[in-house]
Amino acid sequence: MAAGIERIDFKGLPALRLGAGNGASAVVSLFGGQVLSWTPPGGQERLYLSPAARFDGSTPIRGGIPVCFPQFADLGPLPQHGFARTANWSVLNERSGEGYALATLGLRDDDATRALWPHAFTAELSVLVEDARLDLEFEVTNTGGEGFDFTAALHTYLAVREVEETRVEGLHGYSYRDKADANRIGRDSGDVLLIEAETDRVYHGVERPLLLREYDRSLGINNADGFVDVAVWNPWVERSAAIADLPDDAFRRMLCIEAAAARQPLQLAAGKSWWGRQTLVAL
Predict the structure, then answer these.
(1) Of all residues in the chain, what percent carry a pLDDT higher than 70?
(2) Residues 6+ away with beta carbon under 8 Å from 97
(3) Which residues contact 68 (CB under 8 A, 6 or more apart)?
(4) Would you state the pLDDT for residue 70?
(5) pLDDT of residue 1
(6) Residue 258: what pLDDT?
(7) Maximum Cα–Cα distance across the chain
């Protein structure tokens, strides 16, 4: 598509389609403020969206890039991954030009969020498509009179051709919490991470870019600013079969490599802002 942004209906949900003019495009759902598709130049989809995902607004959409806020996973009293991924976001800004398209979506506290989490806030997600790159910036501002704590993540589902043939480079030497092994703390000692069983790890303080290698293509992953942790998740055989909105063999076609702030809750004083970024580059 030509460079620009258009309002579309995506499986019954309002969404934006961003086009960079060189064949690159992305789709962002207003439900959940969630990127559901990213196709770099060349036409290969690089995000996994479950064929069994539900789009009726009653449950989170399985796949794409859900926004986890104000809680990552089950690290707190809120529902899994917080409420942002099931909230309706608004469009704050749209810009496009020669070779790029940028949209910013917003979410703010209301009666429903305050019933779960009694804090005043605004959240913004900016999505930029340019050349072979997808940039996401997530910003949270404390608009209340008291400080609050939160955890957050961009729960990125990457599409892979065969997960057992993928290699994740760049995690060597980092410590991680292994939820698939009773939250044991380990240290990655291999040159690459191979996915050969259920994987549910949060790597701490990751400071270098990552590289996801497949047969004939690679994907660069750079998490920056406030996203100091990296979550790596694949449900493998039994959990994939047990998740209602995933096909039984979904684990073969997906790998989550998530930008996260999960090890330590973030403390945000009244009137202050926090932000984190994730950049994906198709190679």
Answers:
(1) 100
(2) 3
(3) 81, 82, 84, 85, 151, 152, 153, 154, 155, 258, 260
(4) 98
(5) 64
(6) 98
(7) 52
Q: Give the integer Cα–Cα distance in Å for 64 and 99.
A: 23
Q: Residue 44: enclosing H or E segment and its boundaries?
A: none
Burial class (CB in 10 A: 0-12, 13-18, 19+), 12: exposed
The tokens for 24 are 């690159």
Distance CA 161, CA 78 (A): 34
CA 66 distance to own-chain centroid: 5
* Tokens linked to 202: 């949060």
Instruction: Quickly state the pLDDT bin for 42 (edges 50, 70, 90).
Output: confident
Residue carrying structure tokens 């859900």: 66
* Dist. CA 176–CA 94, nearest whole Å: 38
What is the residue range of 165's domain? 4-282
Catalytic residue among 155, 164, 169, 172: 155
pLDDT at 84: 98
The count of structural domains within the chain is 1
Cα separation values, 92 from 33, 80, 103, 180, Å: 12, 27, 8, 39
Enter the pTM of the model. 0.97
Is 155 a residue of the active site? yes
- Taking only the tens place, the pLDDT of each residue in 140-191 is 999 999 999 999 999 999 999 999 999 999 999 999 999 999 999 999 998 9
Q: Domain of 273: which CATH number?
A: 2.70.98.10
Nearest 5°: phi and psi at 243? -90, 120
Q: Which of 97, 104, 136, 124 is CA-nearest to residue 19?
A: 97
Residue 21 has pLDDT above 90, yes or no: no
- 258 is annotated as an active-site residue: yes
Predicted confidence (pLDDT) per residue in 252-269, tens digit: 999 999 999 999 999 999
Give the Cβ contact number of residue 264 at 10 Å. Answer: 12
